[in-house]
């Protein structure tokens, strides 16, 4: 019985260790706060690739991977649509922008590579023939809101009629944010401890992908008009806050598993344990699976020991 007791004790400690380790990993997934350092813009496929912008600000440090929670996704959508609804001159065809999980997944994977250059995982970007991308890097508290605002602030250097950017400035992030046809966005974020574009070794990284891509050579980001929404497409006929939206509540999307629909961003705010566009993907399955292996092994091993 002494051997059995010691065996059970050792196995129990292993299980506690595994549960603790799992909890530590989960606690590393943190929300992201606020500000900017460097921005870079690019689009893929047959679209124009803008020069890398090296605009600097300052801040602190971190070094853990992070994924975006609902509030941060909503902040990204609100910030983009605020920028799009306030363009000057007014836009006849500016589409309301919504979240895309596939674009976000690609952006998150790229952010976690901690490489300060444009790119995406080798993945089919369907239904888009090409996707655009804005990058943001900072050495302090990262901010999805700060990133979008820094891109939007480039509007002061952009002249719509001539499609020209003030000499020595960069406007490509703004024109991607304000590109009328780019109606989907998905972003990822990471704290990095390698490949820093700064003197500091630790830096924060935000990547946003856009579908379809903007910044086509020789084209304005949107159609100029004296009246907002004067040329909305037939599938987005409703004008709300100067943006073209589908009829009904965000086109009639439904949230499952008690998820709440947030109409201001046309997204489901899922309850604990659920994720996905309509809250039908279970997070608990992943947690259970990671804990189930040591527990099942424990039960089977003890059973075998008892038979000896």
Automatic annotation (TrEMBL):
InterPro entries: Allrgn_V5/Tpx1_CS, CAP_dom, CAP_sf, CRISP-related, EGF. It comes from the Eukaryota. Transmembrane segments: none annotated. One of its GO terms (cellular component) is extracellular region. This is Uncharacterized protein. It comes from Owenia fusiformis (Polychaete worm).
């Amino acid at each position: 019985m002494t051997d059995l007791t010691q065996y059970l004790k050792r196995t129990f400690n292993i299980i506690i260790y595994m549960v603790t380790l799992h909890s530590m990993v989960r606690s590393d997934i943190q929300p992201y706060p606020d500000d900017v350092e460097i921005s870079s813009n690019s689009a893929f496929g047959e679209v124009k690739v803008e020069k890398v912008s090296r605009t600097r600000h300052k801040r602190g440090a971190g070094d853990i991977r992070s994924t975006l929670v609902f509030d941060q996704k909503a902040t990204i959508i609100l910030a983009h649509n605020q920028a799009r609804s306030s363009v000057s001159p007014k836009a006849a065809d500016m589409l309301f922008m919504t979240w895309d999980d596939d674009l976000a997944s690609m952006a998150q994977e790229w952010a976690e590579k901690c490489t300060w250059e444009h790119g995406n995982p080798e993945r089919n970007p369907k239904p888009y023939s090409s996707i655009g991308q804005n990058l943001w890097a900072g050495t302090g508290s990262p901010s999805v809101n700060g990133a979008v605002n820094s891109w939007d602030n480039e509007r002061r250097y952009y002249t719509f009629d001539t499609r020209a950017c003030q000499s020595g400035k960069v406007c490509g992030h703004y024109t991607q944010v304000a590109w009328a046809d780019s109606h989907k966005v998905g972003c990822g974020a990471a704290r990095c401890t390698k490949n820093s574009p700064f003197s500091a070794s630790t830096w924060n990284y935000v990547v946003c992908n856009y579908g379809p891509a903007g910044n086509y050579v020789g084209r304005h980001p949107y159609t100029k008009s004296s009246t907002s929404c004067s040329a909305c497409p037939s599938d987005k006929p409703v004008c709300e806050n100067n943006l073209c939206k589908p009829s009904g509540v965000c086109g009639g999307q439904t949230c499952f598993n008690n998820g709440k629909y947030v109409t201001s961003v046309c997204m489901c705010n899922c309850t604990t344990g659920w994720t996905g566009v309509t809250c039908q993907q279970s997070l608990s399955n992943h947690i259970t699976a990671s804990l189930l292996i040591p527990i099942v092994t424990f039960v089977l091993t003890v059973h075998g020991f008892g038979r000896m």
